[in-house]
């Protein structure tokens, strides 16, 4: 599978563009995943700014641990939206997209 991370800037006008990468890419079931997020700060990120992350997968309840028996080829796709927000609720950056995890093929 090629790049499992498919993120783009949200629709709208946000002053600070974002780049996202993950290791390993694609993610592998049962292994840790590191997410790297960087921004180009054209507008000041103030003390007290926060990241609002929304994850859309109807099978998950937060806090969560995802556990599933996998036999054969299976993928898991999660939709994610992340926004960098200043304390005055100004949204500085916004990305949305999906992460797809491919399970290894298991032999029964």
TrEMBL record:
A Pfam family found in this protein is: E1_DerP2_DerF2
User: Which intervals hold domain MD-2-related lipid-recognition?
Assistant: 5-65
Q: What is this protein called?
A: MD-2-related lipid-recognition domain-containing protein
* Top-level lineage group: Eukaryota
């Amino acid at each position: 599978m090629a790049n499992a991370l498919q993120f783009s800037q949200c629709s709208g006008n946000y002053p600070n563009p974002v780049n996202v990468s993950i290791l390993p890419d694609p993610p592998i079931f049962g292994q840790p995943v590191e997410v790297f997020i960087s921004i180009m700060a054209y507008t000041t990120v103030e003390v007290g700014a926060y990241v609002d992350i929304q994850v859309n997968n109807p099978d998950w309840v937060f806090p969560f641990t995802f556990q599933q028996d996998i036999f054969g080829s299976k993928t898991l796709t999660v939709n994610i939206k992340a926004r960098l927000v200043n304390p005055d609720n100004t949204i500085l950056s916004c990305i949305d997209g999906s992460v797809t995890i491919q399970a290894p093929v298991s032999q029964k």
